[in-house]
Amino acid sequence: MEQSVKFTPSGFIRTLSILHIALLAGPTLIGGIFYFQSKETHFSFNDTEDVFLIVVPVFAISGLFLSDFIFRQLIKKIPSKDSLRQKLARYQSASIIKYALLEGPAIFGAVAFFNTQNLAYLLIAGILVLYLALQYPTKDKIERNLNLRGEEKSQFNRPNQPLD
C-alpha cells in the first residue's frame, strides 16, 4: 500500500525550522569547538599584517547584505498566480539561500579565529550566528514576507489542512 505525504502549513514551518536550526548549528558548533581548543587567544583589530582583518569583515558584511537582498529578490519574483504550495516551496528555497549566505561567513570567521587565535573573528562569527538565529521562520514572518491575503491566508491559517 502506498503512503502519501501531505503537505501542510504546519509541516512546512516545521521543515523550514529544522533546516534553519541545522544551518545555525554548524557555525555554532564549529566556533565552540575552536574556542575550547584554543590556548592563547587575544583580541586585536591592530595587526596590520593579518589579511583576515580585511577579509573576514568584508565577507561578514557581504553575507549580511547579500542574504537579505537575494532573499527579497527571490520573494519578489514569486508569481502571484502560483498556488500557496508553490509559493511556500519558493519561499523555502529563498530562505535556505539566505541562511547559507549567513552561515558561510560565520564559519569562515570561526576558521580565521582558529588559525590566528584572534577573538575578533570569533566575535564577528558570533554576530552572524546571532543574526541568523533571529531569522528563525515563524508563521507571521512567512505570511508577511509572502504578503498572503484572502483565501491564501485562510489556507495558511489551517495548519493541518493539506495544500493542493
UniProtKB/TrEMBL annotation:
Keywords: Membrane, Transmembrane, Transmembrane helix. It comes from the Bacteria. The chain crosses the membrane at residues 12-36, 51-75, 96-113, 119-136. This is Uncharacterized protein.
